[in-house]
C-alpha cells in the first residue's frame, strides 16, 4: 500500500476484532466491492477505535453508527464504495476529504494514498479525530477545523476530493481545487433523495456520473 501504515495493537491482542474485520471485508466483496485495495484497507483499519466503547461490539457490522452531535460514522459499504469510486484507476496521490467526522474514512484513505487532508466543521469531532489518528500513527493525514465547502487552498490542487455530507449542489470552490483528471465523489440532494455522484475534471469541464442512492447527514455552512 502506498500510504501510511495503520496498525492496531489492541486488535492484535484481541483477535476477535481482526477476525470480525476479515469477515466485514468478505461481506463487502460479496456486496460488490471489487477493488481489492479497498477491501485490504477495510480489513486493516480498526473501526472499533472510531466509535464509542459502548458501540465497539457493533463496529464490524455493515451499519452507520452515531458518533455524537447528531453525526454518524458512515456505513462500511458506503466508505468502501466511495473510496473505490474515487480511486479507480491509478488515482490518487493527494485526497481532500470534507467531513472528517470520526476519522474512519480518513484512515481508510490514508492506507491507500500518499497524503490525505480532511476538514471538519464541528470542533469536538475534529479534536477527537485528531487524537485518534495520532494514536493509530496515521502520519500521512492532516486535519483542519473549518468550513469544508471552502476546500483547503494551501494544498490544492487535489487528485481526489471526497465529500461525506450531502450537498445541494457541487461546491464551486471545491471543484476549482480539483486537479486536471481529478475526481470528486459526493452525495447530492435531489428531488427523489440523495444520489452518489462522481465528477471528473476533463480538459473541457466536468464529466458527471450518477452512481447510486445514498443517505448522508447534510453539508452545513460555517463552523460550530
Ligand atoms: N467521514 C465520516 C462521516 C461523518 S458524517 C466518518 O467516516 O466518520 C459527516 C461529517 O461532515 C460530520 O462530522 C459533519 O459535522 C461534517 N460536515 C458537515 N458539513 C461540513 C462542512 N461544511 N465542512 C466540514 N465538515 C462538515
Describe what you observe in this structure.
This protein is of the alpha/beta class and 224 residues long. The protein has a single domain, classed as Vaccinia Virus protein VP39 (Rossmann fold). The strands form two sheets. A seven-stranded mixed β-sheet has the order 5-4-3-6-7-8-9, covered by helices on one side. It has a two-stranded antiparallel sheet with strand order 1-2. Helix 2 packs antiparallel against helix 3. The site of S-adenosyl-L-homocysteine (SAH) has 23 residues, from strand 2, helix 5 and strand 4. S-adenosyl-L-homocysteine binds next to strand 2, helix 5 and strand 4.
Q: Tell the overall outline.
A: globular
Distinct small molecules bound, one entry per kind = S-adenosyl-L-homocysteine
CATH architecture grouping:
3-Layer(aba) Sandwich
Radius of gyration using CA atoms only = 16 Å
Count of individual domains: 1
Task: Give the percentage of residues in beta strands.
Answer: 25-35%
Please state the structural category: alpha/beta
Number of strands: 9
Number of helices: 7
Largest sheet: 7 strands, mixed
Contiguous low-pLDDT stretches (5 residues minimum) are 10-14
Q: What do the pLDDT scores average to? A: 93
Q: Could you estimate the helical fraction of the residues in percent? A: 25-40%
CATH fold description: Rossmann fold
Give the distance, in angstroms, between the N- and C-terminal Cα atoms: 35 Å
SSE string: HHHEEHEHEHEEHEEE
CATH class: Alpha Beta
What is the strand arrangement across the widest sheet?
5-4-3-6-7-8-9
Amino acid at each position: 500500500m502506498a500510504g501510511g501504515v495503520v496498525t492496531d495493537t489492541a486488535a492484535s491482542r484481541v483477535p476477535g476484532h481482526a477476525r470480525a474485520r476479515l469477515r466485514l471485508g468478505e461481506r463487502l466483496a460479496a456486496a460488490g466491492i471489487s477493488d481489492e485495495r479497498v477491501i485490504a484497507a477495510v480489513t486493516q483499519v480498526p473501526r472499533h477505535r472510531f466509535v464509542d466503547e459502548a458501540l465497539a461490539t457493533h463496529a464490524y457490522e455493515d451499519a452507520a453508527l452515531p458518533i455524537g452531535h447528531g453525526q454518524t460514522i458512515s456505513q462500511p459499504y458506503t466508505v468502501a464504495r466511495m473510496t473505490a469510486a474515487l480511486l479507480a484507476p491509478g488515482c490518487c496521490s493527494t485526497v481532500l476529504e470534507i467531513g472528517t467526522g470520526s476519522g474512519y474514512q480518513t484512515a481508510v484513505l490514508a492506507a491507500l494514498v500518499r497524503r490525505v487532508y480532511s476538514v471538519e466543521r464541528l470542533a469536538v469531532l475534529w479534536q477527537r479525530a485528531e487524537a485518534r489518528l495520532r494514536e493509530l500513527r496515521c502520519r500521512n493525514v492532516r486535519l483542519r477545523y473549518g468550513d469544508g465547502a471552502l476546500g483547503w487552498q494551501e494544498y490544492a490542487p487535489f487528485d481526489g476530493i471526497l465529500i461525506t455530507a450531502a450537498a445541494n449542489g457541487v461546491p464551486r470552490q471545491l471543484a476549482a481545487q480539483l486537479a486536471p483528471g481529478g475526481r470528486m465523489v459526493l452525495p447530492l440532494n435531489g428531488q427523489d433523495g440523495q444520489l452518489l455522484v462522481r465528477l471528473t475534471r476533463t480538459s473541457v469541464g466536468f464529466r458527471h456520473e450518477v452512481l447510486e442512492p445514498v443517505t448522508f447527514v447534510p453539508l452545513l455552512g460555517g463552523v460550530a
